[in-house]
């Protein structure tokens, strides 16, 4: 565990590899501390990590459980846990080689509502993969970041699922850098019958190490949260 970026408003922490349940407990503790310390402007936090052992997370959305194609026994043979989760979205896979970001942010402080916040996370991924020549795109019918051509979103490279409570965020996004993509065949990812891809599948040997992508994401959050806070302060002064 170590800091990747720090500003007066935000700390980005590298958790390395961590079991899903441990990361969820840490999110909840950090979320509670942020909300309780809102008046004192307690710094926000972004956790960056890989989940190990791999895990399939299932939301409370109707029909989500049916999108797990593998039995518990088959998941266990692959070394994959199955966990119920309180985030939005559908069924998702997390595992080594996938960069997961859990921003614990005060959306009131940043001046963001729900849908702009999701676009904010999508933009982070789009800019994180751009230095390698990958053009990430949005799909109006589905959250996340996609790879395609001629404006058609064909292959999902990053999934997004968030939870907002008392105007503060939990969960976040999962960017496929170089995970075992065969594990996605055990589920219907995000409830969509569409291909999943990774930076490694798209770029081959030119794909960056996950640590390099992690650094880009950390710098992006530090820069963009500062920009939003400054813009909000300027608006307040102008009013």
Brief write-up:
The protein has 239 residues and is an alpha+beta fold. Helix content is 32%, strand content 31%.
Please give the CATH class: Alpha Beta
How many DSSP-defined strands? 11
Q: How many helices does DSSP assign?
A: 6
Strand order of the largest sheet: 1-2-3-7-11-10-9-8
Helix-strand category: alpha+beta
Please bin the fraction of helical residues: 25-40%
Q: What is the typical, i.e. mean, pLDDT?
A: 92
- CATH-level-4 superfamily name: Bira Bifunctional Protein, Domain 2
Tell the overall outline: globular
What proportion of the residues form beta strands (DSSP E)?
25-35%
Which CATH-level-2 architecture? 2-Layer Sandwich
Task: Write up this protein.
α4 crosses α6 (210-238). α2 links the parallel β4 (55-58) and β5. With 239 residues, the chain is α+β, with helices and mostly antiparallel strands. The chain is built from six helices and eleven strands. It has one domain: BirA Bifunctional Protein, domain 2, CATH 3.30.930. The strands form two sheets. An eight-stranded mixed β-sheet has the order 1-2-3-7-11-10-9-8. Strands 5-4-6 form a three-stranded mixed β-sheet.
Key terms for this structure?
three-stranded mixed β-sheet; alpha+beta; 31% strand; eight-stranded mixed β-sheet; 239 residues; BirA Bifunctional Protein, domain 2
């Amino acid at each position: 565990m170590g800091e990747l970026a720090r500003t007066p408003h935000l700390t980005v922490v590298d958790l390395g590899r961590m079991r899903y349940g441990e990361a969820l407990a840490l999110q909840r503790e950090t979320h509670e501390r942020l909300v309780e310390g809102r008046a004192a402007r307690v710094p926000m936090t972004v956790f960056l990590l890989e989940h190990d052992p791999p895990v399939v997370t299932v939301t409370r959305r109707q029909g989500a459980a049916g999108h797990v194609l593998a039995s518990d026994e088959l998941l266990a043979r692959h070394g994959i846990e199955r966990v119920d989760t309180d985030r939005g979205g559908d069924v998702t896979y997390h595992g080594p080689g996938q960069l997961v970001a859990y921003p614990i942010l005060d959306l009131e402080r940043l001046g963001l509502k729900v849908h702009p916040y999701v676009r904010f996370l999508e933009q982070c991924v789009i800019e994180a993969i751009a230095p390698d020549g990958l053009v990430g795109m949005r799909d109006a019918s589905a959250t996340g970041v996609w790879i395609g051509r001629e404006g058609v979103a064909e292959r999902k490279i990053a999934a997004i699922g968030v939870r907002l409570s008392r105007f503060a965020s939990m969960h976040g996004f999962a960017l496929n850098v170089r995970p075992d993509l065969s594990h996605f065949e055990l589920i219907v990812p995000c409830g969509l019958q569409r291909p999943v891809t990774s930076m490694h599948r798209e770029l081959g040997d030119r794909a960056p190490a996950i640590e390099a992508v992690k650094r880009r994401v950390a710098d992006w959050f530090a820069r963009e949260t500062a920009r939003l806070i400054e813009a909000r302060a300027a608006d307040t002064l102008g009013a």
